[in-house]
Design a protein that fits this description.
3 strands; mainly alpha; 199 residues; 7 helices; 3-stranded antiparallel β-sheet; 3% strand; 74% helix
Length: 199
């Protein structure tokens, strides 16, 4: 969670990072890892603090973001496996979503392992799909924050819930999926042109 007063500057980072990830994630993979690491670190650190003090939340978000960015950039060669693991966990959550509740931790762990192994065998496509869908949600999330949309807000803070939009906002998942698919096709077309030029 992040304090509502920091919504606009944080949202700008989300929109820029999301756009780069969604439409150029494969070409800019190291940069995208750094941006996403910062975002994930900031969200994780601030969510552990609770919505008590805006200054403490902001400091926690900054420190967590820097740590997250450093971990993913330094772990560049593990980035593909991490993206695959993330997609595996996402797939498990998507399957469990219609049944309500969270999937059992063993299924989540299994999805992460299977996703990482598959990712290492088809690196290019995993990076494209992972960055396209991750960037699509980050971009939408930033847009919602700029618009002060209640889809992502809880009281005076805003939090990230990709598969659990506010009641009556199921269209958010559809928009996310459509933008993710668009990002996949854009990256495939862009990287294909780059490959042909090299030949």
């Amino acid at each position: 969670m992040l304090p509502g007063s920091y919504a606009v500057p944080a949202a700008v980072v989300f929109i820029i990072g999301g756009a780069l990830s969604c439409f150029a994630g494969y070409r800019l993979f190291k940069l995208v890892l750094g941006i996403n690491g910062f975002i994930l670190g900031a969200l994780t650190a601030s969510s552990m603090m609770g919505p008590h003090n805006a200054v403490v939340l902001a400091i926690a978000a900054l420190v967590g973001g820097l740590i997250g960015a450093a971990v993913l950039v330094l772990g560049y060669f593990m980035g593909v496996a991490l993206v695959g693991a993330g997609l595996g966990v996402l797939a498990v959550n998507i399957v469990a979503w219609p049944f309500g509740g969270d999937p059992h931790w063993m299924f989540v762990l299994g999805g992460a392992i299977v996703g990482a192994l598959i990712a290492l065998s088809i690196t290019r496509y995993v990076i494209i799909v992972g960055t396209a869908f991750g960037g699509a949600w980050t971009l939408l999330y930033g847009a919602f924050a700029i618009a002060d949309d209640r889809t992502i807000s809880i009281g005076k803070v805003w939090a990230i819930y990709p598969l659990s939009p506010a009641p009556g906002r199921s269209w958010v998942v559809i928009a996310w999926f459509a933008l993710g698919i668009l990002g996949v096709f854009a990256q495939l077309a862009f990287t294909s042109k780059g490959t042909n030029k090299k030949k």
